[in-house]
Protein 1
Amino acid sequence: MKDPNGSLYRRCRGVIGDAVGHLSADDGFAMASHVALSALMSVFPFLIFVAALASFFGEADLADRVANLLFEAWPADVAGPITADVRNVLGQQQRGLLTISIVVTIFLASNGVEAVRTALNRAYRVSDTRNFIFLRLQSIVFVIVGAVASLSLAFLGVLGPLIFNWLVAHFPAVAPYATTFTVVRLGITSAALAVVLVAAHLWLPAGRPPILRLWPGIVTTLALWLIATWAFSFYLQRFANYAAYYAGLASVVTAIFFMYLIALIMIFGAELNASLARQDRPRP
């Protein structure tokens, strides 16, 4: 009689080994560097666009809340210096952003989306023959939708505490559940991150496994992101001393290293999906 646990263990080991092997063969480590650098360079244009959009709707303060929301899941040692720089940028008067300069800003922000697309195409081993203009327009749509979603989440972040305070004033029994309310708020942020990840796997690459086969890589990515965030924060607090090596560039190097880990995990999730698809493919 066959041991089902042993068979499951061998299958998991084979899938993970195949995913790691293809991660190296598909230049996943180099692509993670590309995604990390492109994403970091896209953060400021994206937030400038968000600031312009928020000002257009008469809610300039929401841009600062979007920045806090964007870096909320980052380790404090990484997010602190970057958030301070973002606030300096958003605090300046941005004249003319709703004219031709906003087009340049959106284009620069879309480069991060293009980097993710290239990484996913490599992982799923597909060649993208779609029209360049279509791909760039798709990336721009991702940026605009992401900006609107960020503003919506930021607005909920402002409105949520007001609603909770109103409930406490009228229903005092709700007051002990403040921690639960905070957990729910973080859960909504995590759900939004999951939606973005699912959208990236669905629409960015030129080819992918069926939609129901994407969940193992996506769940693995989210779980490893949480572990990596905790581990990197612990590493920075206990062992790392980037200031001794990089001086004034320490905050930038720390952010790039963290985003490199995040990008590498995302690419590994795609490689895991591709590996499962290869394992399930009928063999001659």
Protein 2
Amino acid sequence: MSIFLTSCGQNQTNVPRENIKSETKDSLTSNVWDIKQGRNGNIWFATSDGVFRYDGKSFTKITGKLISRPFFSVLEDRKGNFWFGTYGSGVYYYDGKSFQNFTSRDGLANNWVMPIYEDKDGIIWLGTTGGVSRYDGKSFRSFKISDRQTNNSVNAIVQDKAGKMWFGTRGDISIYDGKTFTTLTAKDGKTFRNVWSIIKDGKGNIWFGADGLWRYDGSAFTQIDQTGAGVIIEDKKGNVLTSIGGPIFRYDEQSLSDKKPHLTVIKTKYEGRRNLPFGLLWANDGSIWIGSERYSYDGKTLTEFKGN
């Protein structure tokens, strides 16, 4: 089913920059919504209390007293600049020295910004609770995916190997080919509801958590399990890790194309809790971050990280 593309206009951006004094802490106690590792190895956290950077020794609150609203997402673009999505104050662009704040006044679809994604052409895509926006380096262009509010609340973004953009929403998955949005349906004609996470693995397969965990290889959908996934990542070895809180499920890289990939269950102290973690990262040094806590993994169990 194709949905007519609705554009919300295009706005040139001319936003003043502001300098913010950072703060340093020994630990991180805020709720963590997103974790990414920068190209220089630093770990970045989008939290309910701001954006923090971990350099291996301490946590620096990069956003200082910038705003009081939570930060939901973080992205380092190909130029080494950062984008921080907030829950109510738009998106902040950080060049390492100063910040620029972009809001609906500048062309954003909505000020509640959740996923941020950079496509192969360097375009920045921002999912909001009111549609999706794209930034080409000069201006924003925003779109309504459909006339249904749940389909405009975007939780996840990825670009497939054909160059099409996938948007996971509270309603369905929509695919944008540059002209129109199409609602994704399985072989039986059903849509995928409550999509909180989507990734493309190293083999080009699309994994997404909806009502169950699914994999799409470019021609067919396979339901991997019925549990779903609030977060999906790929580690440095190509294994796919998922969680809805509680244990972490690791699908072995060598069996990712199998109907039932080999599964290892990594138990955590959050057993039985289905609301954690939103933030999950397998770092370059082999440690695992679950929210603000860092662990090492020996193939069987997680232990508190004892490195630097």
Protein 3
Amino acid sequence: MDSKIRIIFVATMIIISMGLAANVRAENTTLFKIGEDVSVEEGTRINHVLAINGQITVSGTVEGNVIAIGNSIVLTRKAVVRGNVFTFGGVIVMGKGAEVQGTITEINSSNISDVITRVLSDEWEGWSWVFAIFSLTIFFSVLIIAVLIVVLMPKPIRIIAASIQEETVQITLWGLLGIVLVVPLAILLTVSVIGIVLIPLEMILVVSAGLLGFIAMSQLLGQKLYTLFKRPPQPILRETFWGLVALWLIGWIPYVGWMVKVLALMMGLGSVIYTRFGSHSPKRSMKETAVRSTP
């Protein structure tokens, strides 16, 4: 199969598999682990297997795809995979007798240059595939961070997302102000020795605020998507996942995609500033104050 077709096919398979893994109360026949090894024992039948920074060992049957990000895949002689086998950052080891009915793709430090060379062989058209791989890498990085934040700090995400929905105009203005003031503030900090030391702190705060706001914006978008399709309210992790997927796909729309993502980032940043990193809900506080002050 042509290398470019394989790349986009594998990318699609990754999204589908992550979608399956993100479901709350996921099917028992779908294995998804982060930072842990995954093993499919002999005689076991599994739908899909996905591991991030964990090795996958298959001795049984996998009806779908086997995907490892940041580690290797081992297929013993008893392994049967009816879908595709893909690893990014690892190797694929196959025992004699292992059966794979789909494609086998291995991208790591030893062959990444060859993959890029093949992609660029079609000149300008090839660059789109380099950007696709880069975009996919960024997407998974943000996804992993989003999963950790949503699991560990769901309340700030909900507060930030609610503020975006309820105070859209103010949030947008705060976001625009925040973006406009980043560079001037950095320039002002260079005036003094202490200020120079604080510049890295400013950058960390801006990046953290932008990322937190973007994740909250994704959760709100995912919530709206479920409402649009007349589905009942979903757990925050599932809403955030599908919101991130939607924004990633929108980003590929020519001319307008990048503007939508910038707007989402700006509104998210504004909401983080407005809610003080999700620790304060101004509108709710004002309502509570009004109620307490009423005789």
